[in-house]
Write a structure and sequence with these properties.
binds NADP nicotinamide-adenine-dinucleotide phosphate, 2 domains, 19% strand, UDP-galactose 4-epimerase, domain 1, 12 strands, seven-stranded parallel beta sheet
Amino acid sequence: MILVAGGTGKLGRVLVPMLAARGLSVRVLTRDLGHGNDLISDNVELAVGDVRDEVALDRAMVGVQTVVSAVQGFTGVGGESPRTIDWLGNRALIKAAEKSAVDHFILVSVQGASAVHPMELFRMKYKAEQDLRTSSLSWTIIRATSFMEIWTSMIGTPLLETGKTRIFGKGDNPINFVSSHDVARFIELAATDPALRGEIVEVGGPENLTLYQVAQVFETVLGKTGKKTRIPRSVMRAMATLLRPLKPAMARQIQAGVVMDTAPMSFDSAATRAKFPTMQQTTLAEVIRRDFNVSSTGVEI
Ligand SMILES: NC(=O)c1ccc[n+]([C@@H]2O[C@H](COP(=O)([O-])OP(=O)(O)OC[C@H]3O[C@@H](n4cnc5c(N)ncnc54)[C@H](OP(=O)(O)O)[C@@H]3O)[C@@H](O)[C@H]2O)c1
């Protein structure tokens, strides 16, 4: 049995059916059974629980050999934050797995995770990585770059629906984007191939693109141009400061936009490609065609 914490999220929703299609039994941990009803199948079941609830975690671990953690608290509200979910939530999951008969723990982290990264999320993921590496469990860490699917909906959907879109900051910083489907395939590999145990696998996409270029790829694929408005960094910084006491999750996301516009965010996936030559590397244009139902000629289908 594989327990997928975060199985109802964007990545989880690709991963869970992928594991099930291989005939693997999957249990999805969710705080709300309503989030995952559509995932239930012959070999997928749900377990209700919060990663901060020790009793619920002990219950969810029964009969589990492999845990995948794809939880995140970055966009969470209330008491959810990178600290409480990405670090302490993962720490609780690791402890519960150690107590139970779990053999292997796969942690989804972020490419660039480090103790000194300007973004809290990256520092908290790093702490969770350290907890896992010093645990008694066999482990694999999947460090992914930014998911293309998030940015296609943030930049592409408005462009498609209203003919205009917003670029956060100058939009001239190269960022590596990866398809969450390609990340899911690496997790599937980690769950089934013991060679990935004890490995940190850095999973990035084939392109480093600025946010401005992301919008341009959209325009090319869709065959339409739109208005691209830049939100100045100074405005983003001021909004993040003002919103912090009232809406911390929104403030965090705006602040992250500033970091993405200024910090080194590119990644060379050549080493991972050389090590895993058969793994797919989906381009942004392919993701747009897949998710926006566009034929290769730019016409919606
Ligand atoms: N998005 C990116 O660009 C990106 C890039 C690199 C790495 N990652 C990592 O990839 C993983 C998946 O990201 P995603 O974008 O697919 O996430 P997502 O769509 O935001 O989903 C978050 C998941 O976390 C679960 N979760 C949150 N708080 C929880 C709690 N207190 N207890 C139990 N479950 C909780 C949610 O489950 P319920 O709501 O059903 O409880 C949901 O399934 C995360 O670890 C993320 O940090 C993401």
